[in-house]
Design goal:
31% helix; Ribosomal Protein L25, Chain P; five-stranded mixed beta sheet; elongated; eight-stranded parallel beta sheet; 6 helices; alpha/beta
Length: 243
């Protein structure tokens, strides 16, 4: 049986408490009891094994038996720079790209992106979705999720954070290489997914000028979330040696 996992901002051996929301899930959803074992993760690489010692209405006390730290990945990172989509569809982008192993999800406001409400509360929602997906999927690291900005701002920020990254963007151009033909190499890669109206010629030229290569995922027109899933699945599988 899969071991229950809970998030805690910091993990150290000894007696600790869960946050109220994590405690609520343990008590009211999973109905766990003192003596049961669970796993803690902090989203930054530390994982701990803990035993429940006391359960109250809104408080759960644990004893962390041991903790280990996984080294942070410094290359081979997969960054999905994707247009915001309408409704709950972008929730799926955050959730599924997290499950697949993307290291950074960067929402982009292209010229043809449907304008939606943005702000701190929306970014907090995205981070909560990523946390839930990280917890469920067994990931050790939380993906980085940045606030939505336009293509110029996204390019500037990502090239600063990942100066040696390879850049690609999806296209239906029949002369473009297929994504599956890209060699699996240990380098960061940033994949740009445009809006359903397509990137403007100026946006495509901006990406080419930045060194981005056009790649084909399929011969069919994909929705935003489908293209993001495909990029994340293929690139993460290549990185992890599964292809």
């Amino acid at each position: 049986m899969k071991q229950a996992r809970f998030y805690r901002e910091s993990i150290e051996t000894g007696r600790v408490e869960l946050s109220p929301d994590q405690a609520h899930h343990l008590v009211n959803v999973l109905r766990m009891e003192p003596g049961q074992e669970l796993e803690l993760f902090d989203g930054k690489g530390t994982v701990g094994r803990a035993i429940i010692t006391n359960v109250k209405h809104k408080t759960v006390e644990l004893n962390v038996e041991d903790a280990r730290t996984v080294p942070t990945r410094t290359s081979g990172r997969v960054i999905i720079a994707v247009s915001i989509a309408k409704g709950r569809r972008f929730d799926w982008v955050i959730t599924k790209c997290t499950e697949l192993g993307a290291d950074h999800i960067a929402p982009v406001l292209f010229e043809r992106t449907v304008k939606l409400a943005q702000g701190a509360s929306v970014l907090a929602r995205y981070n909560n979705l990523a946390l839930a997906a990280t917890k469920q999927s067994g990931r050790v690291f939380l993906p980085k999720i940045t606030a939505p900005v336009d293509l110029a701002g996204t390019l500037s920020a990502l090239q600063k954070d990942y100066p040696k990254a390879r850049l690609v963007f999806g296209t239906l151009n029949t002369e473009a290489k297929r994504i599956c033909t890209l060699p699996a190499v240990d380098e960061d890669i940033i994949a740009f997914v445009g809006p359903e109206g397509g990137m403007t010629p100026e946006e495509q030229e901006r990406l080419r000028a930045a060194g981005a290569a056009e790649v084909r995922l399929t011969d069919t027109t994909l929705r935003i979330e489908t293209a993001a899933f495909a990029f994340a699945a293929i690139l993460c599988a290549n990185r992890d040696g599964s292809v």
